[in-house]
Structure prediction request, 507 residues.
Amino acid sequence: MGTADISADSFADTSRTYDIRTYGCQMNVHDSERLSGLLEDAGYARVATGGEADVVVFNTCAVRENADNKLYGNLGRLASVKAQHPGMQIAVGGCLAQKDRDTIVKKAPWVDVVFGTHNIGHLPALLERARVQEEAQVEILESLEVFPSTLPTRRESAYAAWVSISVGCNNTCTFCIVPALRGKEKDRRTGDILGEVEALVNEGVVEVTLLGQNVNAYGSDIGDRQAFGKLLRACGEIEGLERVRFTSPHPKDFTDDVISAMAETPNVMHQLHMPLQSGSDEILRAMRRSYRQERYLGIIERVRAAMPDAAISTDIIVGFPGETEEDFEQTLEVVRRARFAQAFTFQYSKRPGTPAAEMENQIPKAVVQARYERLVELQEQISWEENKKQVGRVLEVLVAEGEGRKDEATARLSGRAPDNRLVHFTRPEEPVRPGDMVTVEITYAAPHHLLAEGPTLSVRRTRAGDAWERRQAEAAKPKPAGVLLGLPSIGAPAPLPLAEAPGCSTC
Prediction:
């Protein structure tokens, strides 16, 4: 029996629950929203907090250090649980599944389904096929069948949403295995993207983040180098859309028309995540990064000339093979000159299947650690200095859900400023919901957040807050058998914490 022989209706069972455990970048987070949508469309329900799910799905990453060890450790812990839970199923998908294929079932024979990055839409059918045939199902496709955005989606937030504009990557960075796992870049039609954005806005979303492995290469399919800037301007014409962001661009494809579109389109935020990876021209050449230090800094200068208030963040790899002390000093120099609001820093580690893993002159761990600590110390100081410049500013903050871990203890709420800085603010007297906007004055700055300790200056209730309120009310209702949760829904996850900062999607 093939995947296509089984329809969702043939095995929908509202008594079965699922749990999805996601590792890696924003692309994986957004894929997990689709996996949730697919499972709920097939009749599964998300497991209650603390409950034991009937289906556990691991959406894996092949870029994180020791990703395979972490996966097999988690699978090992689930083996005994599954033995005591008749009918329980375990599925493994994502980049590591695409890479390891049959290895997963050999090492963990209690896994029921292995699927790749190109066929996430097959998960419900694969689960049913594994149940009926009582044997593991491994299905890995080499190319994309259907653009994932056509699949059902269970959005994690009512006010902000990821919107994929492309999948895959055409670059050949020597440290990155993503192109081999997600394939060559494939762009969505502009009309489909804008249609999705408009549908989200109609549901109450006020912020979208355009998502791609190399987002500003959008248009390469049709040979239009200005397609991404045009897309940003088109988003500016959507009534009710208040904030537009994008991640992550590549310096080699970053053109001046994008800077103009950012500066001239009111709802495109003055925030830019621009991966550096290294400040050394020699290391950039070894990484196959087709830009050099001065080109990178030139982009930063032009962005700041057009938008002096722009908050710029980056990714940096420390200890790439062959990196000398002089090379590392060049990275520190770029950090000093660029004055990033934030930097996601990574210690280089070998990734099987990448050219860098076979390079000579691998840097000793102790040297990498020492350089990493020096870089973090420098960036922490710069982040703090840049955040201090925000003190005294009056900002409109989009109230977030779950971003302030100490909010209950401090009687505060949290949200994001237009430039995406995290702001903790005093809880106002009037009711305020995630998705609403508050105006506050910044009174204190730390390296990774801002505080508004005075009274809230104003509260603006929004359609996004209304949508959040409706979602809460809907979730509180008992669900009769066979009734789904209104899919596709709205929103996207809150910005990732630092530990899950951009990785494989920021080449």
Remarks:
- Residues 365-388 form the longest helix (24 residues).
- The longest strand covers residues 311-318.
- The chain is about 35% helix and 20% strand.
